[in-house]
Structure formats: structure tokens, C-alpha cells
């Protein structure tokens, strides 16, 4: 069996190998390779592809480090000129009527929680891609990169607890008989899984687990630690203007202008929230060398 699988993997075309490699993160890919090697499968060409992938990722990280200079934003943290507001509004396709007022717009750091995989590499198309970011509006946490990183880690841990919640006998019965396809039963099973996390985070994490969901939620005390913290979906429209080198920075920090967020979920609400009082992406030229 091992020889058959080895021959099958070896027979893959270079294109097929690359597609397989691109479908995993480096950590996931290493796990897959090691698992196949334990079965006696020759994964030499895949290890070579993994090494090339890791080298490319390290270069992107170094290029990002070399390009970014957040200190250039210091001039805009306490006072924002009308010209700066206009430039941000234009970058986001916001009308004069909907652009933020300088006195009500806070410059904040957003930390990426999750994003479309294409946003982690240089742009090769003009498509719009979504991401989820966490940010704080209070002065103590707006630019606290350590707090942002820790909060993202806590959010990811809660999401994993829900997704990987251990099945009990009722879950297994519903899965075996495909009962989870029913809306009412699916909602019931989901609500049971959500009980694995604090109540003040359940609605938010429920939306986060749905890749098609658009939302803006204040973080509960269990995640915020007392900060005026929010988590929201955000769409990147013009990557070459909105992201340094057209991809998410090495530290996953993206600066925004933030108006007063409105809590909720749903496409129509998000559209209104972003245009009128939500996050507006700051052009990368303001924080790149």
C-alpha cells in the first residue's frame, strides 16, 4: 500500500504539487507530510516545495518589516487635518456626505483575526477580499500591539473551543442521520457548542465561525479586559493603495480611522456602518518608507 501511495504522489505534476502545497499553511503542510511519511510514502518533492514556501514567506515578512514605518502615523494620532480625512475617504470610496469628521475620527490599530488567504501575499488580481479585525477605541489600548496580539489569541482559542467541541451521543446521532441539515436542529446543536465559552462572547463567536457573516460587535469583558474593544469584518477594495506592498503586514497590524461603531450583523448594516461611522482604511503611503 505504501509503494502504491508513494507512486501516486510521485506521479503528480508540478502544477498539482504546487496546488496541494498552496492549499495548506506551512504548519498544516508539515503535519500532512510527516503523516504521509509515517505511512512509508516518499514526500521528498513535497518537502522541497515546503522549504520553498517557507523561504518565500520569510522573504515577504522581511520585505514587510523593511517597508513599514508606523512612526509616520504619530503626526495623525492626536490631530487629523481635513486634508488627511479627505485622503482616507477617497481611498475608501466614501462620499463627502459620509466621510468622518476630524474631531470624531480616532486613529486606531487593527489586528487581523482572520482573512482571505490571498491577502497574505502580493496582489495578483483586483478582487475585493474580506478580513476580520479587532481594535480598541480607548486611549489605553488603541496602539497597544501586545494587547491586540493577546486578544486575537484569546478570540482564536474561543473559536477553536466551539468548532472542536467534543461530540456527545446526541451530536453523533444527529451527524449519522444527517439531522444537522435541518435549520432548527442545526441551531440547537450550535447553541449547545457555544455553551463551551462565556455567555458574553457567544453571539460574536457564532458570527466569527460563519465565514459568510459580516458583523461588528463590541467584545465582552471575557475578551476585552475592560477595553472599549470591537471586532468587525472589513473589506479591502484597493490592495495596492490600502495595504503595504499589497498584502497584510508581518505583524498583522493595519491602521484605520474609526468612527463610532454600531453593533450588529448582516450585509446591509455593515455597508452603512463602514461608510458612515466605521473603519476606514488608511492609505499605506502614510505608514510606509
Description:
It is globular and about 60 Å long. With 289 residues, it is α+β, with helices and mostly antiparallel strands. A seven-stranded antiparallel beta sheet has the order 6-3-4-2-1-5-7, with helices on both faces. Mean pLDDT is 86; it is low at 267-273. It has two domains: 2-64, no CATH class; 69-155 and 207-287, no CATH class. The longest helix has 24 residues, at 44-67. It has helices at residues 2-10, 14-22, 26-38, 44-67, 74-77, 82-91, 145-163, 169-176, 183-194, 202-208, 221-224, 239-242, 267-276, and strands at 106-115, 129-136, 215-218, 229-236, 253-258, 264-265, 279-281.
What is the mean pLDDT?
A: 86
**Would you report the number of β strands?**
7
Helix content: 40-55%
Domains, number: 2
Report the principal-axis shape: globular
Largest sheet: 7 strands, antiparallel
Give the radius of gyration: 22 Å
Strand content: 5-15%
Biggest sheet, spatial arrangement of strands: 6-3-4-2-1-5-7
Structural class: alpha+beta
Low-confidence segments: 267-273
Output the number of helix runs. Answer: 13
Distance N terminus to C terminus?
55 Å
Q: How do the SSEs run, as a string of H and E?
A: HHHHHHEEHHHHEHEHEEHE
